[in-house]
Amino acid sequence: MSKRLTKAQFQYIEDELRHYHETKNEMEQLRLNVITGSIYRETRDDNIGGGSAGGISNQAEERTLLLDMDQQINRMNKVVGAIEKTISNLNDEEKQLIHFRYWDRSKPTWQYIGHKLKMDESTARRKRVVIIKEIARRMGF
Question: Which of 34, 35, 86, 121 has its CA 20 to 30 A from that of 114?
Answer without folding.
Answer: 86
